[in-house]
Amino acid sequence: MLKKYLIAPGPTPVPEKVLLEMTKPVIHHRTSEFSATFEKVANGLKKVFSTEQDVLMLAGSGTAAMEAAVVNTLNPGDNVLVINAGKFGQRWRDICKTYGILVSTIDMDWGKAAKPEEIEQFLKANPDTKAVLLQGSETSTTVYHPVEEIAKVVRKNENTLLIVDGITSIGVHDTKFDEWGIDIAITGSQKAFMLPPGLSLICLSKKAWNFVEKSTIPRYYLDLRKELKSQKQATTAYTPALTLINGLAVVLEMFEEEGLENVYKRHAVNGEATRAAVKAMGFKLLAETPSNAATGFYLPEDIDGGKLVKFMREKVGITYAGGQDHLKGRIVRISHLGYHDAFDTITAISGLEMGLRKFGVDIKLGSGIAAAEEILQNYIGE
Amino acid sequence: MLKKYLIAPGPTPVPEKVLLEMTKPVIHHRTSEFSATFEKVANGLKKVFSTEQDVLMLAGSGTAAMEAAVVNTLNPGDNVLVINAGKFGQRWRDICKTYGILVSTIDMDWGKAAKPEEIEQFLKANPDTKAVLLQGSETSTTVYHPVEEIAKVVRKNENTLLIVDGITSIGVHDTKFDEWGIDIAITGSQKAFMLPPGLSLICLSKKAWNFVEKSTIPRYYLDLRKELKSQKQATTAYTPALTLINGLAVVLEMFEEEGLENVYKRHAVNGEATRAAVKAMGFKLLAETPSNAATGFYLPEDIDGGKLVKFMREKVGITYAGGQDHLKGRIVRISHLGYHDAFDTITAISGLEMGLRKFGVDIKLGSGIAAAEEILQNYIGE
C-alpha cells in the first residue's frame, strides 16, 4: 500500500490549506501583522466556544491547559470532585493531587458516562466542593459525558466550578460555554481544530476569574492573569506558537465556510455511520453514550488488538488507536475527528473488514460498509 | 464533504514527497547540479521502458511527444496504418494527416482491442506501410491493446515502424521496449508517473533513428536529433521543465523502493478489484481486454452519465471521468493510475454505490465493495 491514513483520535490530519499557511515564512510576533491575525483568531474562537469570554491561547499541549485550569483557580487543601471514567479523568486527579488538592472521585467502569444525579448527590453531601472536573468526551473510552445536564447541577452551587476538558469535544459536539454555565473549558489544537499539536485553548467564566484572584498556587508560565492582560491587547505574555495561530486563522475560516453546525453534523454523521458499521460487523460498542469524536469497540476475545493495530499501521497504512491500560489489546478506536470525511470512514471500515479477516475473524466483506453507507448516503451531495 | 478525490485517468494525484521536491527553489538548468539529476533520471527511465536506448524528456504534454514521433520519422506521402479504436487512435490519424501522411485505419468499435492477425493481413496487403500507430492503453475506452503480440507481427517488416502511445500503459503494464521490438514509445508525466502535466517522454529504437535521418518534415522545437545530442550530455536543447524533472527523480526513487514489478501489480490488483466491483453491481464493462489504467463501464440507459459525473465531482468531491464522443453520458471511467492505492479503489466504489442510489439505480449497498475487498484482501499487508 502506498498511502498513510491517520484515523486515531489525535493528532489528526491537517488540511493542505492549513499546512500551506504554516509553511509561509515566520514573521515576528510583536508586529501589527501578527496582532491582526491574533485578534481575528480570538474573535473566531469565541464563536466555537459560544462565549463572550476571552478564549486564551497557550503554547503547550492540552495537558498544559488542564494544569492551567487547576493552578489558576484552586488552592492546596481544596476539595474537588473528579469524574474518573477513563485515562483522562485520571489525569485531572493526578494534576490536582500534585498541588495538594483533596480529590474525591466518582469512579466509573470504562465505557460508562457520568450521571448528573450522582454528581448532584455528591455536591449536596459535600457543599464545600470547589470544583467538579471531567471530560466532555473521554477519549480513552469514546464516551460523551452529558456536559449540559451536569452543568445544570453544578451551577446551582455558587462556590463550585465546573471544569471541562473539551479536548475531543469542543469542535465536535456543540458546546455552549455561556448558556450551559461551564466555568472552565479547555481544548487542544490537534483534534477537531485540524492543526498539529502544540497549541491549547482555555476559557474561563466570570465566576472562574473570581476564583483566580483567590488562588495561591505559584504559577509563572501558566499564569492566566498575565495571559488575559496580554491577549486583550492581541498579543501573548510569552512567545506564542505563531505558526499554529496562523494555521488556526485558516481553520476558523474553514469552519466559517462549512458552518459550525455542519462541522458538528459531520462528526455526528461519521460517528453514527461508524457505530452502525461496527455493530453490523457483530461487535459491541465500548461507550454507553458514544462521543462523536471516536468509536471504540470490543474485539473478539482471541484477537490481540495490539498486534492488529500494529499490523494495520505498519503493513496497511491505517493508524487506528488501540486500548489503554486494562483495555490494552481488547479494543480498537476509530476517530472521526477533524479533517475526516465520509470516505475516511469508508476507508476505516473497509480496512477493518479486510484486516480482521487476516486475523481470522469471520467478517462478511461489505457488511460494515453497507451499514455505514446506509447512513452516509443521506448526506452525500448535500 | 471536505476532501477532493481525483480518480480520473489523468491528471492523477501527486504524492506529497514529489510535491515537496517541486516546491524547492528553482535552480538554473545549465548547472552541474541539474545535470546530475538529469543523468540519474535518464538512467531511471531506461529501466521503466526496459530499454538500452535513450528516453528523451520533452517540455510538453503527451501530444507533443506523439507529434514528435510522427514528424521525426515519417514523410508526406508515406502510408501508415492507425489503429482507430477510440479518441486517441483518432489523434494519431489527425496528426499524420496534418503532415500529408496517407492514413489507413483499422476502425474498431469502442471497447474492442486491436487484433494482431488483422494487422498482419494489412501489412501483407500493404507492404509499403511505413508505420503502425496505436495506443498501448486506449484511455477513452479503457482497452489494453496486445502490444507484445502486435510487435511480433510488425517487426517482421523491416520498413515498418511500430509507434506506441504508452501514455496510460507505460508504468502501468510492463512494457519491454527492446525485447518486444517497439520502435517508438511515448508517455506523459501526469499518469503512472504521478507528476503534474507538462513533461513527455519518448524513446526510439535504432531502426526508428534510421528513419529520422530520412524524414524531411520540418521541425524545430520537436527535433529529436537536437534533443538526443543534448540529452546525451545531460542537458536539453531548449529550457527543460526542470521542476518536473526534479519531481521525476523522486518518482523514480519511489518506483525503485516499491519495485517496478509491484508498481505493475498494484495497478493490476486495483484494476481487477474495480472490475469485480463494477460487475458485482450489475454493470457491463466497456473493454473487451481491459487496461489496468482505468475501468470503464456502461451506465443504465436512463441515467445521464454527464449529470452523475458532475454531481459526484461538485457535490461529493470525487472526480471520475465520463465518456467521450458517442459514449458521452453513457459510461463512467474509474482510474487506477499512479498514486492510487487499495483505499482509493474502495472510495471510488463506495462513492459509486451511494451516488448511483441518489440517481435512482437499485444498488445493493456494499455489494461492489464486497467484490473489491474479496480481491484486495489478498494483497493487504503484504
UniProtKB/TrEMBL annotation, chains A, B:
<keyword id="KW-0663">Pyridoxal phosphate</keyword>
<keyword id="KW-0032">Aminotransferase</keyword>
<dbReference type="GO" id="GO:0004760">
    <property type="term" value="F:L-serine-pyruvate transaminase activity"/>
</dbReference>
<dbReference type="InterPro" id="IPR020578">
    <property type="entry name" value="Aminotrans_V_PyrdxlP_BS"/>
</dbReference>
<keyword id="KW-0808">Transferase</keyword>
<dbReference type="InterPro" id="IPR024169">
    <property type="entry name" value="SP_NH2Trfase/AEP_transaminase"/>
</dbReference>
<dbReference type="Pfam" id="PF00266">
    <property type="entry name" value="Aminotran_5"/>
</dbReference>
<comment type="similarity">
    <text>Belongs to the class-V pyridoxal-phosphate-dependent aminotransferase family.</text>
</comment>
<dbReference type="InterPro" id="IPR015424">
    <property type="entry name" value="PyrdxlP-dep_Trfase"/>
</dbReference>
<feature type="binding site">
    <location>
        <position position="333"/>
    </location>
    <ligand>
        <name>substrate</name>
    </ligand>
</feature>
<dbReference type="InterPro" id="IPR015421">
    <property type="entry name" value="PyrdxlP-dep_Trfase_major"/>
</dbReference>
<dbReference type="GO" id="GO:0019265">
    <property type="term" value="P:glycine biosynthetic process, by transamination of glyoxylate"/>
</dbReference>
<dbReference type="GO" id="GO:0008453">
    <property type="term" value="F:alanine-glyoxylate transaminase activity"/>
</dbReference>
<protein>
    <submittedName>
        <fullName>Aminotransferase class V</fullName>
    </submittedName>
</protein>
<dbReference type="InterPro" id="IPR015422">
    <property type="entry name" value="PyrdxlP-dep_Trfase_small"/>
</dbReference>
<feature type="domain" description="Aminotransferase class V">
    <location>
        <begin position="5"/>
        <end position="324"/>
    </location>
</feature>
<feature type="modified residue" description="N6-(pyridoxal phosphate)lysine">
    <location>
        <position position="191"/>
    </location>
</feature>
<dbReference type="InterPro" id="IPR000192">
    <property type="entry name" value="Aminotrans_V_dom"/>
</dbReference>
